[in-house]
Amino acid sequence: MDLRENIAKVRSDLEAAARAAGRDPSGITLLAATKTQSSDTIRAAIAAGITACGENRVQELTAHLADNAYEGAAVHFIGHLQTNKVKYVVGRVELIHSISSEKLLRAVAAQADKLGIVQDVLLEVNLAGEDSKSGFSPQEALSAARLAAELTGVRLRGLMCIPPAAAQPGDNLPYFKKLCRLTVDITREMLDNTIDMDVLSMGMSGDWPDAVAAGSTCIRVGSALFGPRPPVSTRKD
Known about the structure:
Blueprint: H1 3-20, E1 29-33, H2 39-47, E2 52-55, H3 58-66, E3 74-77, E4 95-99, H4 102-115, E5 119-125, H5 138-150, E6 154-161, H6 173-189, E7 199-201, H7 208-214, E8 218-221, H8 223-226
Parallel strand pairs: 1-2, 1-8, 2-3, 3-4, 4-5, 5-6, 6-7
Helix pairs in contact: 5-6, 6-7
């Protein structure tokens, strides 16, 4: 694996996909999904041009922060977050992508209030209604957005989704378009609130070109940058 070459290729492909969709590539964040990667690998990725890292596990986030591995890059949290772990994440990352329930939203807001900060968040939407995945249904997303607007400790920046695994290119395009439309609908319904939903976090290594075509502003890419993941620890966050 040549990390620098992989990053350059994904960036080149991202620019081409954005241009093909009539979009400015600078408006799309390449978020390196650093799950199971070592601190040295993260440092190497940042040295090679990565400007934002997304961590899936609280345990790894905490260890890499202690190791100062993310220096020079923004840090996002993109994995499942339990309410009893919010104190390890809130105020330590720029953006939490995976707000999947009103209970979690309230817990994040409460911790942010405790710290005297405002935490930027995204609502995770379970577009396909998969039992194996968390997140709001599309019908629940508006009420969750309204709740976020009422809470002083959070600022809603947009939506995130993890659609079903795509069997072939194009399979997830309908889901990405649906999330984009949902953002527009929620924004229209909340014109009386101060809301700035400018982030659409959608697209991973296997389907990000379709996400870009549909309007993604943040693609979460792991294996296309780092290659197959190292074995995952059996410890749970």
